[in-house]
Amino acid sequence: MGDKVKLLNELSEHLSGLKVEWHLCGGFAIDAYLGTITRKHKDVDITVSFYNMKECIRYLKSKGWEIDAPVGNQRLVPVEFALQNSELYFDNLWCYKKGANFLETEKTDGIFKYVRFIDREQTELDFIEVLFNKIENGIFYYKRNYNITREVRKAFIKKHGISILAPEIVLLYKSRNSENSDYQHDYDMVINILDKERYNWFMNAMKIAYPKGHKWIK
């Protein structure tokens, strides 16, 4: 547990010079909300507004990170190439330290690189996934369906000195792969401790996202 707390403290310190808002998300955000580490985590995720994408990239580059953009079909390209080729849409970035040994390149095809994660628990700051979301005029938009929105003041919560994406929004993203045992764990840990407003928002959002039903809809 100590390694994970140290990791989050290091992340916060490392990003202290970033002049745009960033928020912890993913499984670590669930554990930050709960106030305890409840499972192993394979990576650390943050979310940033699309509007601040280039400033975020500039800052991370200045800190020496390698940055690739996932552009579909399990392909990665250097972020500079993705930015210069608008047909290569991306909404997240993989940032990793040079020589990182938890990524394995399976093959290359010109500029495209195909990699896979070596299964491991992240305990040091050698990888950050940055996920970009639409945040405009005080409103957070769920990027899979812009009909689902949340006021920014409710979408982000301060926990232990770090801003986190609210657990009901994290669960909404995880619902797309609810067969993942870690995601099911996160749902089980937090669903029954959400206050009424957050719980109701989550269920309403799920009904919009899954009009044909979902196992997490009660």
Question: Can you lay out the helices and strands and say which pair or pack?
Answer:
Blueprint: H1 2-14, E1 23-25, H2 26-34, E2 45-49, H3 53-62, E3 66-70, E4 76-78, H4 79-84, E5 92-96, E6 103-109, E7 112-117, E8 127-136, E9 139-141, E10 149-151, H5 152-155, E11 156-159, E12 162-165, H6 167-174, H7 181-190, H8 196-209
Parallel strand pairs: 2-8
Antiparallel strand pairs: 1-2, 3-4, 3-5, 5-8, 6-7, 8-9, 9-10, 11-12
Write structural notes for this entry.
- The protein contains eight helices and twelve strands.
- Strand 3 and strand 4 form a beta hairpin.
- The relative contact order is 0.16.
- The model has no long low-confidence stretch (mean pLDDT 94).
- By secondary structure, it is an alpha+beta fold.
Summarize the structure.
This protein has 218 residues and is α+β, with helices and mostly antiparallel strands.
C-alpha termini separation: 33 Å
Quickly count the helices.
8
**Helical residue percent band:** 25-40%
Determine the mean pLDDT. 94
Number of separate strands: 12
State the low-pLDDT regions, or none.
none
String of helices and strands: HEHEHEEHEEEEEEHEEHHH
Strand share of the residues?
A: 25-35%
List keywords for this structure.
about 220 residues, alpha+beta
